[in-house]
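Writing this down once: the sequence line spells out the residues, with the fold written below as integer tokens. I am pasting one below:
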Amino acid sequence: MASFEETFTQPKTTVPKKSSGIIGYDVPEGVDIRGRYDPEFSKILTRGALQFVASLQREFRNHIKYAVECRREAKMRYNNDGLPGFDPTTKYIREGEWVCAPVPQAVADRRVEITGPVDRKMVIDALNSRAKVFMADFEDALSPSWENLMRGHINLRDAVNRTITFHDQARNKVYKLNDQTAKLFVRPRGWHLPEAHIFIDGEPATGCLVDFGLYFFHNYANFRKAQGQGSGPFFYLPKMEHSREARIWNNVFERAEKWVRIEKGSIRATALIETLPAVFQMNEILYELRDHSVGLNCGRWDYIFSYIKTFQGHPDRLLPDRTQVGMAQHFMRSYSDLLIHTCHKRGVHAMGGMAAHIPIRDDPAANEAALELVRKDKLREVTAGHDGTWVTHPGLVPACMEVFTNNMGNSPNQIHSMKRQDASILDEEDLLQRPRGVCTLECLRLNTRVGIQYLAAWLTGLGCVPLYNFMEEAAAAEISRVQNWQWLKYGVELDGDGLGVKVNLDLFGRVVEDEMARIEREVGKEKFKKGMYEVACKLFTRQCTAPVLDDFMTLDAYNNIVIHHPIGSSRL
């Protein structure tokens, strides 16, 4: 078999080949593009870039399939009264005295990071937001239509090259990058998501390898010169449940580095700890990524979603109203504290959670009250030892930056000053403590309303949606879906509002009907009629009432946004 280097050509822009008078993408053997042809897209889907992605797919697809199968086996254990916990066979890693590679100077200071989709104007706004980092998201904040994905890669290429502009015709205003911008991180999709517009050897490509491969191929050199100060590119890694998944990413990084002949450890990544099983694997995940790691992040909304999903077979572990499951809950606070201790022991960043509020422009008093809640949450994070935090809106950057700077001073991070040795005693009982709270009809209504509206937007190409003064992404809709499913399955009693009724199909049906009527009133009849609300309602209702809980809402909905074109590829 040819070596990794021998398989590839160097990046180049190719001219689409003509076949029977039809223009299509110039693809290597075994690759089939089923998405719409566009001359701009062809500059991303070059023959060399597709060779790179195809090689990653061929080398790692069996490892990915095995990791996904291991997830299914773990799910079966949890559904049969099993509990996640620390692995006794990797105790030597947890108790060892190793550290990760030193943090690159380019990303030493990450006190406020902004996240968002790869929409062109959002990319410009986020890079100009005065945050330290912008995480450009191909995952939860993006509806992965062919158009969104391809235009996202065009936007990131232009951002790295500093040629990105956006003309707002309504305002007759041109947006461009400031001289000083946030550092760019990219989050590819999770291992479980396919890319159904690109087939490799007769099967859909793995979404995250497409995202990583295309971005790395086109941008590694310019990024290292312009942003990375000789290191990078930088990534966020979502949805991992076990260190074997981190090992795959580490091997992908090493292959990419070897191909372009940059030093090992140039690529750096922060892993999101956003699944319950992963909290017991934090040391092991860092160990597998130790040459490429720049820390862990508390993905707390997905973590709540994962808590419900992991315990879907445990009627004694029902989650109360979602609004009551905050960082004051013992299991959530323990997760955050242990993450800080683990990261700082290993010499890397411990990043805090998301502030999803958006400015309330027509109500200054309500806006200030919301900002005060954000400040308190960020003060809790920085005093606990987090090195930085997440926001979804540029309007939150100044307030959060002020909180972290007031407490950290001139230090870029707290890696060496806040070891949190007190958290080293946290155990499985702390991390799995049952959350306390009550269940209400209002929560059932809110879950239904948010879930349907988010899914309706997602089906029309929006993955980041403002709802009720929050910027919602897939994690919020997932919490809505799985909590409704859990309450329906176990007939939860609504004990928090004095009703005393139990959740059943009849009650849920009435709630869906009421909330659809409310959505129509709120958005207006014309928008409601033109939107995808009815389709979203059917999908959401089906998933909430299914006898078996789907792992991810977006897997079921994905087929609704996949559009295949008969002619997309041509070959030499």
About this structure: The mean pLDDT is 94. The chain has two domains: 79-432, 441-559. The CA atoms of residues 243 and 285 lie 5 Å apart.
